Structures are given as structure tokens and as C-alpha cells.
Amino acid sequence: MADVAHCWGFLLLVAIILTFTCKTVGEDDLDDLAFQAGNQQNVQFGPAKKMRYLLYSINPGEGFNLRRDVYMRVANLVKLLNEKEPFTLVLPPWGRLYHWKSNIRQLQLPWSHFFDIDSLARHVPVMEFEDFLKVNRKPEIDIIYYLQRFKEGWRDGKWEERIEFRDCIDDTGFKKDKDGRWRWWFWGYEQVYGKKFSCVSLQLEYKGLVPFLMKNADSTVQSIFLGRAEKLTHGSHSEWSKEWWTARRSMRFAKRLRDVGDKFRLENLNSTDETDQTVLDPDWRTMRRERGTAVGGPYMAVHLRRLDYKYAHKENVPSIPHAAKQIKKALKKNKLDVVYISTDAPDDELDELRRELKGVTVTRFERTKEALNEYKDGGIAIIEQWICAHARYFMGTAYSTFSFRLHEEREILGFSPESTYNCFCGTGKDTCDQPSKWITKYE
What span is annotated as the signal peptide, if there is one (predicted)? Predict the structure, then answer.
């Protein structure tokens, strides 16, 4: 009888295990999406802790490279939130931006089109917006916090950290429908709505938002949306901090775009990672490069902003002849005779630059119709950045976020400050202030 009782006890245990481990196929599919959000969790949570989601938007007028900077702020916010509860960062789809001038359709582009999602997820759990809609089962967001300035400005003319619920100052774009749902354009996903909405005035580093969210978004709130997330600042976690650089190092470009840039370098610039000493480690977390270890390809790279910069920053933007003069001087100094040009200059100015650089081999990645359809404006910008990042010597445009991001890329690859932090001087100036020199820091 004892043996029979033991056998029945064993069978009961097996039944209990199966009951708690078996799910329907549909639930498994959704769990797979949730786990794809990231393969790195620093904190282990018990089964009672349900995954929560942080979404965000940015001022529509902001450019591609500034949006990358805002991503780093929000990603590091999610990293801090994960020390409290499990959060996944939902990535806002890309759409047409001011500097994307082509006529091709560019709407609801996923982050995977431009960046390596697995690389991002080694920093914090991330998820595409469309995957969030599948996991969430309903096209709804629990709470929307629209971030704004304080109407009265700084107190006594001094900046101080503070955050308060306030009446909305400007037109937020969010409207309440007849059913009490908060509507916004949500990147063209018209079915999406918010259940609750508040305007929040703040002067705050992103880390200061953690206690606010933990206090005001209780356990019933699964999804939180931050409108105008650029209002958050890096503060003490800016370019000189380990936290900032960790987020930045995770932002590797999509491999297919890097491959296009590498192919161009090989065929047009006699440049490979092996000869340039710029081979990437498979995992950015293990990659540590000393400054000056990267050699770079036998060419100079130039980022020359024109268009709106000729008016917004005219004291820092040279005429075409003066730009050519500075390029030739840098080529001679570095014993190079090939220059790669990345510019938004119109064709007539580019033709003028080529004439001014007579005797110099000038090359660029052509924005053909086929390339634009395949990679989009943002993808071509990344291909150009990747090519510029591997040059033996780089010269950029002052105050341009495109050039800023290139400085960082070259720091990560191990280039020397002397070959990286250079910018054009305005017309009539032979010398001018050069970019600040940041150094990569590791956690």
C-alpha cells in the first residue's frame, strides 16, 4: 500500500507541474515577443512582477541625430526603472523628418531598419511599437504624461529640479474623443488611444523621473507614455559619464547598413576593418579601445553642412572656396589625396567644390533612387556616418549633431582626438574654436 501511495503522490506532483507550465500556443507567441524585448535583466523579479512598458515621443521638428540623443536619456531612465520593477522601452516608429528631403514614403519605419536591436537590448529591454501592440492585446496606453516647461520659467532666475502636475500651456496635439479616450496621431496608428492624460511641468534630469513614475503610476498601470521626452536632460549623466557612454555604445547601426558602408570603403577608398584596425567586437560590452589604436582608411572625410546652416550658423559655415582651402590644408598635413564628402549642399555648390579641389580625388555615396527606396534618408545618413567614422582624418561642422555623433563613433572605434575633433572655420577665419573632446568611459 505504501508503494501505491508513493506512486499516486508522484503522479499528482507531475500533474501539478504540467498545470503550471503548459500554456496555449497564442500565449507562447506573445511571451516570445516580450522576451525579445531584451536578453539582459540586471534584477531578477518574482512572478508577481508583471512587465510594464514605457513609450515616448519627441518634438516632430527634431532631427535624426538629436533623436538618438533623446533615446539615450530614455533608455537610461528605463535602466533605473528596472532596478525597481521590470520595464521594457517601446521604440517610437520613425517617420518623415525635416532633413529627409526625398519624395519616397517614410512612415512607421521600425528601429531595426536603422539600428541593431539585439545590441540595444544588451543595455535595456527594448521592443518595436508594433510588437507592443501585439503583446498589449488592445491599442491602448494607460497613462500619457505630456512633458512641458513651467509657465513662469525659472524661480528667481535660477534653474532647479522640480516636477508638478500643471494645466497644459500649449496645444499638445492630444484630444479627448466622445468616448473619453485620448487621441493623438501615434505615428499613423489611428486605432491607438490613451486612457488617461496629464500635463506635467518639469525641470529635471531623467533620473529624477523615477520616483515620480513609481509614485503616480500604481501597479494597475502597465503602459506609460512620455510626450516630448526631449524635455528630460542628461544632467550629471551627460557626455562625461559612464552611464551616457554605456547607452551610446549600445547604439550600433543595423548590420546591413554597415555592410553597405564597408563595401563602399573597400571598392572606393581602399579601406577595410583589418587594415584600418577598426574591427568590431561582436558584443559592445566587451569592446575596449585605447585612443589612437585605430588607423583609419587612407582618406579624409568631411561633413559640410549647408542649406539652413548658412543662415542659422553663418559665422561657422565657410564659403565653398574657403571650405576647399581648409580641406586641401588638412589633406597635405595628413599626407592624403582622397576626400570623402558628406554634405547637404545643392548640386551647383558640390560642383563648385569639386572644381576648387582640382587634383584631389573626391568621392561620395550617391543618393540614387534605388538607394533611397532601399535604405531611406535615415539609412543613407547612417551609411555616410559609417564611412566618415573610418577615415584617417575627419573634419565636421560646428554645432551639427551629425558631426557630434561621428565624434562619438570614432571615440568608440579608438581614433585619436587629433584625427577626430576638427571642424570647419567660417569664411575669413584660418583658426576657430574646435569641438570639445570627450573620452569614452566604461562601467
Answer: 1-26
Q: Cα(79)–Cα(243) distance, rounded to whole angstroms?
A: 10
Residue numbers in the chain where pLDDT is lower than 70: 1-48, 236-240
For the entire predicted model, the pTM comes to 0.88
CB 218 within 8 Å of CB 52: no
**Structural domain of residue 47, as residue ranges?**
29-237
**Bridging pattern class, strands 175-176 and 182-183:** antiparallel
d(CA 89, CA 312): 34
Does 337 share its domain with 296?
yes
* Number of domains composing the chain: 2
Q: If DSSP codes are grouped into helix, strand and coil, which group holds residue 128?
A: strand
Q: Is 401 contained in some domain?
A: yes
Question: Is residue 93 domain-shared with residue 225, that is, in the same domain?
Answer: yes
Q: Which three cell numbers stand for residue 157?
A: 532666475
pLDDT digits (tens, 9 = 90+) for 273-322: 999 999 999 999 999 999 999 999 999 999 999 988 888 888 889 999 99
Q: Which of 27, 62, 164, 239 is catalytic?
A: 62
**Of 103, 397, 124, whose CA–CA distance to 285 is shortest?**
124
- Pair 290, 320 in one domain: yes
Catalytic site residue 62?
Answer: yes
| DSSP string across 370-399 | HHHHHHHHHHHHHHHHHHHHTEEEEEB-TT
Same domain, 61 and 168: yes
16: in domain: no
Task: Quote the CA–CA distance of 262 and 382 in Å, as a whole number.
Answer: 12
Of 207, 237, 267, which residue is a domain's last?
A: 237
* Spatial separation of the C-alpha atoms in residues 229 and 372, rounded to whole Å: 29
